[in-house]
């Protein structure tokens, strides 16, 4: 095993110096995605470096060499001291959070080619992460949250598998939402199947328990409803977002497929 002290790396000391001002990448897949989408990663550790690189060779050969230059092997005890909950891959890293200004510029561009997903006062960290993963896969311009949930919370980043770095993720107030028509999902809305959504739409989804806030409902240009059989009360938030983005994709508001993508 590489001795981090004699190698001059001291990942434990570097980690503790940087932890408060960086984003935790919890697990191999979060690190893989962050690196693939250009994240700056100042420190990365693995309990079994050879196994992590073998996994990269199998699942992400495009970033294997980069990971080889980043990963330092540490003991299991050291790894466990750095993360709140050990990941099965025993890999972790810290990344620099993208600038808020750059994300706001991206969200506010006047001719967006794909929608912005708005999560209105979400409550569940894991659901928020799943939505960010969906939005990144679709190629959405970004994901905006309102309310108190931090979309860069470590649990959200873990749920998003590091794909925060593939799209613009910010927390805003309803008044700060970027310009564009707001289509809010609500059971009393018009059937979404009869509506063509513009590329620059803001697609708003209420919280899991209370639905749309009064502020977002007022801001909405139109309420839309997803098809659902009688006596079914609701869909999971990530399911609702996936169905809506799929509708957008069928109407053409999605980037073209470029062949088989890396996992």
Model description:
There is one protein chain. The protein has 263 residues and is an alpha/beta fold. It has two domains: 11-95, 2-Layer Sandwich (60s Ribosomal Protein L30, Chain: A); 100-251, SPOUT methyltransferase, trefoil knot domain (Alpha/beta knot, 3-Layer(aba) Sandwich), CATH 3.40.1280.10. 35% of the residues lie in helices and 17% in strands. It contains ten helices and ten strands. It has helices spanning 11-18, 28-36, 49-59, 64-70, 76-82, 100-107, 125-138, 154-159, 214-219, 237-251; strands at 23-26, 43-46, 71-73, 91-95, 116-119, 142-145, 168-171, 182-191, 202-205, 222-225. It has a six-stranded parallel sheet, with helices on both faces. Helix 7 (125-138) links the parallel strand 5 and strand 6. Helix 7 (125-138) runs parallel beside helix 10. The longest helix is centred in the last third of the chain and has 15 residues, at 237-251. The chain is elongated and about 55 Å long. The chain starts with 10 loop residues before the first helix and ends in a 12-residue tail after the last helix. Residues 1-8 and 257-262 have low confidence and may be disordered.
CATH architecture of the largest domain: 3-Layer(aba) Sandwich
Number of distinct helices = 10
Uncertain spans: 1-8, 257-262
Major sheet details? 6 strands, parallel
């Amino acid at each position: 095993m590489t001795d981090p002290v004699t190698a001059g790396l001291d990942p434990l000391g570097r980690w503790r110096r940087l932890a408060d001002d960086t984003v935790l990448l919890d697990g191999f897949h979060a690190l893989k995605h962050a690196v693939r989408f250009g994240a700056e990663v100042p420190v990365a550790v693995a309990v079994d470096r050879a196994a992590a690189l073998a996994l990269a060779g199998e699942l992400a050969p495009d970033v294997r060499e980069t990971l080889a230059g980043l990963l330092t092997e540490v003991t299991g005890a050291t790894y466990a001291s750095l993360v709140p909950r050990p990941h099965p891959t025993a890999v972790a890293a810290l990344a620099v959070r993208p600038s808020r200004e750059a994300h706001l510029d991206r969200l506010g561009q006047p001719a967006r080619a794909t929608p912005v997903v708005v999560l209105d006062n979400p409550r569940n960290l894991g659901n928020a992460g799943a939505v960010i993963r969906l939005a990144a896969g679709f190629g959405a311009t970004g994901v905006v949250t309102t309310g108190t949930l931090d979309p860069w919370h470590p649990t959200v980043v873990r749920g998003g598998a590091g794909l925060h770095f593939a799209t613009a993720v910010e927390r805003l107030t309803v008044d700060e939402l970027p310009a564009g028509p707001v289509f809010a999902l609500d059971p009393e809305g018009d059937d979404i199947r009869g509506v063509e959504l513009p590329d620059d739409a803001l697609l708003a989804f209420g919280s899991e328990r209370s639905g749309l806030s009064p502020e977002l409902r007022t801001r909405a240009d139109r309420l839309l409803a997803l098809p659902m059989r009688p006596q079914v009360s609701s869909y999971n938030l990530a399911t609702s977002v996936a169905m809506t983005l799929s509708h957008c994709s069928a109407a053409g508001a999605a980037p073209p497929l470029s062949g088989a993508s890396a996992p």
